[in-house]
């Protein structure tokens, strides 16, 4: 939009709203500013939910599972939240951080959604958080663990139904230190999810006397693992800790076995390494141990009912991503129900979401002050097509939320 046109618009609208809108537009350089920031759906309208998720690329299956879980919870409520019908909007974020501001702006300004549910990839999440903050739009993060979202960039309108990158890594750091491991090599994709997982791992592992002797990485979503696997073997560590997920995790686990290291160097990871991937990984994954906030074989009634319904609805077994989508909908329901679907009442929605005790298939959880789940982290072991729970690695683990001022 031309600068003069923007200036005229600034005078025609309430200054506070348009200042936010203008800064979003100028920052993204993207979608034309046709509307002011949405105030929220008022009495009588539908609750508008915008999915910003990956539907293509290495994380495509993760995005679909999140949407499936979310929709299933809404269906269980008769298709309504806060007594209102729900209308969905969708954007494929392609796990591409460069497109994130424009994609988020489309949902918020073009589609005028009440809430953005997104996303999977930590780099894309940074763009969404920025736009959601600029527009004061409610955001529920159903996967991406980027620590900043519930750390220095936390905000009253930013919620997470998943985990912070720090959490599963930290849990595994404890496990390996307690097993007497001393010398560990880490290997991840070189972006926030991998780097912050390693940071969490290192914090717990080194506090108990272990040492991370080398941190290896490759760019996301590169899957040319061979040279790095050879380097790990030459370092002869006690164990390896990795972060990979989705299609990349399938390839890594198979390459690790093909290189003949499966029975030579113990391989550990955050649970994304083997969640939603076991059918494709087959024998290569058997016996792998990981830490995550969900597992197969949790014997709570909520999980049993969830799994039965998910299998019936989608002819698939659910995974952690489906659980996080389901719980994103539960969290939103807590807010929407408190205001009987009047999505203009943001402070009341936020208050209800902050106070929610989410009855999750993973086990009930509450939110920290920074709006991140305080939850148990399970140690799991692959057995057939399941990540079977062995034990609770760390109970009620809260992200430290460093830098969050709420
Ligand atoms: C992330 O980018 O934050 C992420 C992606 C897949 C699984 C877990 C975390």
Automatic annotation (TrEMBL):
Transmembrane annotation, as ranges: none
Protein family (similarity comment): Belongs to the leucine-binding protein family.
Signal sequence annotation: 1-34
Record has Signal as a keyword: yes
Stretches assigned to the Leucine-binding protein domain: 46-383
Pfam families: Peripla_BP_6
Keywords noted in UniProt: Signal
Taxonomic lineage: Bacteria, Pseudomonadati, Pseudomonadota, Betaproteobacteria, Burkholderiales
Organism encoding this protein: Cupriavidus pauculus
Listed name of the protein: ABC transporter permease
Coiled-coil residue windows: none
InterPro entries, sorted: BCAA_transport, Leu-bd, Peripla_BP_I
